[in-house]
């Protein structure tokens, strides 16, 4: 079956033409590793994808059920949430819950970066700086892209109405300046051939210097900075200081102080208390998707410094009534982002677990990392060089990056773009689904694996059997795809 290809696109064309055969072999491999019967459709490689959330622990479920049939003002729960956050980060920080992480981003950019609409004269424009990194269609899509060559970057990643789903969330008179991190690469790969984002060699210090230079270039319109809050090389944050804080994140915090502008961090796949510390990176607000890794129901958490959080909480209608109260839960510009009292109760319970017993989640992640390393060793020897496997404390996940299998212009394990993911032509993710698993994020040769779908008990501890089956099946799929790509006989 081995076949050599002169050009990359020929390999991806061959994979496209042979998808039926690949998926048939993957289904057979899944049966061989034990994903049959009741396991099929009930195990997965993450509980952090928006289309299939992780299962709730017993304590979180009980907390939600407890308030469901009680008369309890949401303002009471808002204050309990604030108490949990302030007790950990300090009284100079505050918090609020919204219905999704994206709702938190929307509020942050509109409130902290968008120019005012009132006042005489023509409205001015403002610009915020964002690294050209993964997930730019979230944190970097709230302004019109600048320079113009980036205007198509987000175009095919939305599924809602309005310019491929991106136009609708752009804030009024706001632009996004894309900044390429120093050391980043953007080669084209995939069946839906597009630039993929390779960030493992990003130099944090030099990138901060570049941001400083570009900030001065746009000083007359400079309104903010943004990045993701992750902590792994595959996301561009492997360059860290002695305490493990990414140099790039901390440096952007320093620049925000220098230019007196807000610094917003999108930490969707992150956890409060255990992961990226807002106090160390100096951002104004950090936003979480609490159902991804924190064990909460679907909701978004915003933690921030008190001054910007007054603006955020007022916009969400939870800061206080106009006639003078400490807190309220009523009408405001973004009241549509209200999470509801059940989500509030569930999020508080999940946060208390993370704050009081972090060792449970950390041990489950350590166990997952161990199993990933053990199952990786079963790959054919020729497929092993070029992998970087590490654990993410921020995301309670394991990152498996294989882009360096393409070193020295030699063909490596096939890389699929995010456009492949949205177009349904991501062969690896499709193969995982065909095997009866909930797949995980795996584009740009960067696989993020975490717990949550069928592999944790009610207390959040890892169960060996379903975890090992899922990881083994994933590597089997990679092996099958690699054989069709001509890398194995």
UniProtKB/TrEMBL annotation:
It comes from the Bacteria. Residues 250-361 form the Aminotransferase class V domain. Gene3D superfamilies: Type I PLP-dependent aspartate aminotransferase-like (Major domain). InterPro entries: Aminotrans_V_dom, PyrdxlP-dep_Trfase, PyrdxlP-dep_Trfase_major. Pfam families: Aminotran_5 (PF00266). This is Aminotransferase class V domain-containing protein.
């Amino acid at each position: 079956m081995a076949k050599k290809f002169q050009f990359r696109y020929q390999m991806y064309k061959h994979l496209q033409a042979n998808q039926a055969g690949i998926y048939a072999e993957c289904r057979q491999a899944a049966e061989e590793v034990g994903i049959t019967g009741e396991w099929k459709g009930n195990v997965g490689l993450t509980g952090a994808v928006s289309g299939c959330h992780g299962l709730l622990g017993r304590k979180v479920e009980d907390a939600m059920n407890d308030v469901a049939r009680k008369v309890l003002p949401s303002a009471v729960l808002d204050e309990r949430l604030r108490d949990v956050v302030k007790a950990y980060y300090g009284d100079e920080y505050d918090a609020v819950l919204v219905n999704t992480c994206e709702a938190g981003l929307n509020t942050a950019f509109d409130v902290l970066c968008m120019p005012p609409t009132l006042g005489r004269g023509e409205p001015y424009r403002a610009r915020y700086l964002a690294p050209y990194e993964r997930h730019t269609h979230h944190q970097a899509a709230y302004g019109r892209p600048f320079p113009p060559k980036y205007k198509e970057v987000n175009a095919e990643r939305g599924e809602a109405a309005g310019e491929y789903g991106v136009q609708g969330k752009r804030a009024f008179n706001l632009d996004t300046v894309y900044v390429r991190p120093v050391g980043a690469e953007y080669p084209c790969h995939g069946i839906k051939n597009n630039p993929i984002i390779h960030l493992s060699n990003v130099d944090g210090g030099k990138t901060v210097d570049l941001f400083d230079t570009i900030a001065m270039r746009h000083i007359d319109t400079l309104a903010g900075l943004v990045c993701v809050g992750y902590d792994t090389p595959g996301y561009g944050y492997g360059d860290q200081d002695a305490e493990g804080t990414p140099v790039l994140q901390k440096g952007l915090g320093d620049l925000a102080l220098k230019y007196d502008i807000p610094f917003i961090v999108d930490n969707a796949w992150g956890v409060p208390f255990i992961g990226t510390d807002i106090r160390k990176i100096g951002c104004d607000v950090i936003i979480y998707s609490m159902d991804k890794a924190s064990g909460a129901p679907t909701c978004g958490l915003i933690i921030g410094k008190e001054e910007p959080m007054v603006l955020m909480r007022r916009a969400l209608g939870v800061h206080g009534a106009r006639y003078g109260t400490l807190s309220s839960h009523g009408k405001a510009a973004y009241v549509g982002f209200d999470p509801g009292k059940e989500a509030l109760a569930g999020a508080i319970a999940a946060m208390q677990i993370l704050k009081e017993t972090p060792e449970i989640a950390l041990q489950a992640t350590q166990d997952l990392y161990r199993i990933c390393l053990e199952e990786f060793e079963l790959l054919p020897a020729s497929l092993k060089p070029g992998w970087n496997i590490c654990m993410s404390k921020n995301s309670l996940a394991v990152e498996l990056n294989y882009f360096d299998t393409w070193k020295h212009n030699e063909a490596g394990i096939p890389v699929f773009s995010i456009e492949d993911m949205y177009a349904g032509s991501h062969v690896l993710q499709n193969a995982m689904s065909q095997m009866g698993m909930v797949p995980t994020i795996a584009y740009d040769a960067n696989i993020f694996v975490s717990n949550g779908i069928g592999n944790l008990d009610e207390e959040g501890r890892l169960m060996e059997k379903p975890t090992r089956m899922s990881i083994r099946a994933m590597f089997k799929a990679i092996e099958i795809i690699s054989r069709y790509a001509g890398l194995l006989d």
